[in-house]
């Protein structure tokens, strides 16, 4: 069996594995060289101590190089002046870890107290947080062990690294931006193939069939996912069917898809829509197309307010004011539209993305209250997500949800897509 498995790995496949490893190593080097020093100094943290256990890795461990931890391991970053942050790995190793040389010092975890005392940091950032899960990796027991190990003097200097973690994860180098763009291209290509006649045979194919076809493509490409099974469901003309379930896709259905792809620590979150043509049709009903076009107009309002130097919350408030001042629109609640058939409800949840499907950085979404207080900076990744609830005259008085979502990067110019964003309703014959 071993010989058969080895024979199945072609030279091209082996080259792709090495290519991805080299790319990931460069991403990690660039993050620690270029992003970490500025983030630590802005947050007034002169030591960032990240602790992991075997079977309970900190959420930042993969970004910091991964590696094998036997019992307890520490990634320790110390600002000792100059242009670079000193990097130490205590109790972390392994062949892959060693082949991407990120750390100046490697040692035994038993030396952590002496190591910290020699550097005498004033503020030691640790991964405990109030809102951001990626900054909350320190377990209760390991927190207690760390405090005991460091002793009272240095335990009193421990502070939350929540904002630091957000900044490190949400600011990106060119190698990360390139990987994020590639993840986006994988996402949209697979999604648009899924919502086509390549996969869908009206009257036979279920929404679950489409979702599992997409998951199979991830297996083939060696990719991960952001949210598990893609969400595939029918928006109209009838009531929404089961998500990624046994609904048989029929002519006249308006379908949506919501999913994300993970490539090289970059995660996407995006949507696409498709209309299944009835015999004799060559386009969606006029009311459906009109609703989609109106959603594109809301997206333009969002893009116009994104610029570096303002908080994400201020940008969202500016968009909401525009929407509220536009005739025919009201600010709504997710999946709970108003009863007025003449009003179109708008819900905006343009959140951070990239380091996760729902990311750790500045977020234009009221479900991320802390992240709304963070300032938008060049290289932040955003998912431009919105929902429009509006009546489609051809389908009666019930409001239909029109979702839009695509990903891109905050730049000095404002916001730029990292791959071709959705501009049309896909058609299935």
Automatic annotation (TrEMBL):
It holds the Pfam family Peptidase_M24. Residues 181-412 form the Peptidase M24 domain. PANTHER family: AMINOPEPTIDASE, CYTOPLASMIC PEPTIDASE PEPQ-RELATED. This is Peptidase M24 domain-containing protein. It comes from Sphingomonas sanxanigenens DSM 19645 = NX02.
């Amino acid at each position: 069996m071993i010989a058969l498995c080895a024979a199945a790995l072609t030279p091209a496949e082996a080259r792709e594995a090495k290519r991805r490893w080299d790319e990931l190593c460069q991403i990690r080097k660039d993050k620690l060289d270029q992003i970490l020093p500025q983030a630590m100094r802005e947050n007034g943290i002169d030591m960032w101590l990240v602790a992991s256990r075997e079977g309970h890795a900190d959420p930042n461990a993969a970004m910091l190089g991964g590696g094998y931890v036997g019992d307890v391991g520490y990634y320790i970053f110390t600002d000792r002046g100059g242009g670079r942050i000193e990097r130490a790995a205590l109790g972390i190793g392994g062949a892959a870890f060693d082949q991407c040389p990120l750390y100046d010092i490697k040692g035994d975890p038993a030396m952590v107290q002496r190591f910290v005392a020699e550097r005498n940091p004033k503020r030691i950032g640790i991964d405990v947080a109030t809102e951001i899960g990626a900054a909350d990796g320190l377990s209760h027991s390991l927190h207690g062990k760390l405090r005991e190990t460091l002793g009272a003097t240095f335990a009193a200097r421990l502070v939350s690294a929540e904002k630091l973690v957000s900044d490190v994860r949400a600011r990106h180098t060119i190698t990360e931006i390139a990987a994020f763009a590639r993840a986006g291209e994988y996402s949209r290509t697979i999604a648009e193939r899924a919502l086509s006649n390549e996969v869908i045979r009206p009257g036979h194919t279920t929404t679950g069939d489409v979702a599992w076809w997409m998951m199979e493509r991830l297996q083939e490409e060696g990719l991960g996912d952001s949210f598990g099974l893609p969400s595939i469901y029918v928006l109209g003309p009838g009531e929404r069917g089961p998500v990624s379930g046994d609904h048989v896709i029929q002519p006249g259905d308006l379908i949506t898809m919501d999913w994300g792809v993970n490539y090289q620590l970059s995660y996407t979150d995006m949507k696409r829509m498709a209309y299944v043509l009835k015999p004799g049709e060559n386009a969606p009903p006029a009311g459906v197309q009109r609703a989609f076009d109106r959603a594109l107009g809301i997206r333009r309002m969002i893009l116009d307010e994104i610029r570096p130097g303002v908080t994400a919350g201020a940008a969202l408030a500016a968009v909401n004011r525009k929407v509220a001042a536009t005739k025919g629109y009201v600010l709504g609640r997710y999946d709970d539209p108003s009863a007025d058939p003449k009003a179109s409800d708008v819900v905006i949840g343009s959140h951070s993305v990239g380091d996760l499907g729902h990311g750790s950085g500045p977020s234009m979404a009221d479900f991320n209250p802390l992240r709304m207080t963070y300032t938008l900076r060049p290289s932040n990744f955003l998912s431009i997500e919105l929902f429009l609830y509006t009546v489609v005259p051809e389908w009666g008085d019930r409001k239909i949800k029109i979702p839009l979502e695509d990903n891109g990067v905050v730049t000095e110019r404002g916001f730029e897509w990292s791959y071709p964003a959705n501009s049309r309703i896909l058609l299935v014959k």
